[in-house]
């Protein structure tokens, strides 16, 4: 299978991430995708293509225009009003609705309007990486619709925590959602998204929650115990026209190993098969790995091979979009283990 990549990912890096009341070195760092790329070359998974350029309209098809404008303008305004030596990050949040219709003037207020947490800041050139990551996803979708059986979009930054007008959890533009909407715009009737990142794909869920043309399934750590905490429960099934088109399978932290995971995977695949999508988009995070530094599932490297084999049995045109995974030593092996089932 072919991979799409953009070297522009390295334009995005932050000085710190905040958790447990502390500023720490970032788990989400540029190395991550370089390790994956190296493993793709070593194992000869297939050729690596550079992302094509696409119009911003494809991003605005799932995100508010004002939010995309904010992402583009943020750094320049941060430099004028705040400290150019530090990451642009929110310190105040809009949790009341009085100002919802207002585009705030100050960068502090804009950051707060468009952030859900402290783990999505922006650096000097972050926007270029964010835009390129969406282009990586769009290029993969374009190749898929052009007749490829399966594609891998090696996106960074990740996307699945980003909703229509909120950045969160290392995510800015929802790459999988942008790709799904592109497939619909190009003539697909139904798209399924399967999110197998350790964390619930709350951004993806929220974008498609009231729509029937995109079925969203997610297998993830129980939000009673894990980020993103405020979404991902089994009783969230979609609303209005989207009722029945959202499936959450939360699993317990600490105890989830292959037997439990395999059952959940099969359950999500059965639901996807009966939805009969034209294409499948897999939000592929490998932070379900037993040695992941911020996660608590117990999948081994061999288990990722089993995931790939099981998914391939769906026999759907499939676009893999890269999301999380922070055990950099094994991130390449685990990712390629999933994808290998699709190599010719
Ligand atoms: C794309 C993706 O995987 N985003 C994940 C965002 C997770 N953010 C919350 C992380 C909380 C980490 N707690 C760390 C405890 C380390 N001992
Ligand atoms: Zn994750």
Could you walk me through the main structural features you see in this protein, from its secondary elements to its overall organization?
The structure is a single chain. The model has no long low-confidence stretch (mean pLDDT 98). The chain has one domain: Histone deacetylase domain (Arginase, Chain A, 3-Layer(aba) Sandwich), CATH 3.40.800. The longest helix has 20 residues. By secondary structure, it is an alpha/beta fold. Bound molecules: N-[3-({4-[(3-aminopropyl)amino]butyl}amino)propyl]acetamide and zinc ion (ZN). This is Acetoin utilization deacetylase AcuC-like enzyme. Belongs to the histone deacetylase family. Its cofactor is Zn(2+). GO terms for molecular function: histone deacetylase activity; hydrolase activity; metal ion binding.
Bound molecules: N-[3-({4-[(3-aminopropyl)amino]butyl}amino)propyl]acetamide, zinc ion
Return the CATH class.
Answer: Alpha Beta
Oligomer: single chain
The averaged pLDDT comes out at 98
Distance from N terminus to C terminus (CA atoms, Å) equals: 7 Å
* Radius of gyration of CA atoms, rounded to a whole number: 19 Å
Q: Total number of β-strand segments?
A: 10
Task: Trace the largest sheet across and list its strands.
Answer: 4-1-5-10-9-6-7-8
**Main beta sheet strand tally, sense and closure:** 8 strands, parallel
The CATH architecture designation is 3-Layer(aba) Sandwich
Percentage of residues in strands: 5-15%
CATH-level-4 superfamily name: Histone deacetylase domain
CATH topology: Arginase, Chain A
User: Which structural class do the helices and strands define?
Assistant: alpha/beta
Q: Which ranges are low-confidence, i.e. pLDDT below 50, for 5 or more consecutive residues?
A: none
N to C succession of SSEs: EEEHEHHHHEHEHEEHEHEH
Q: Percentage of helical residues?
A: 25-40%
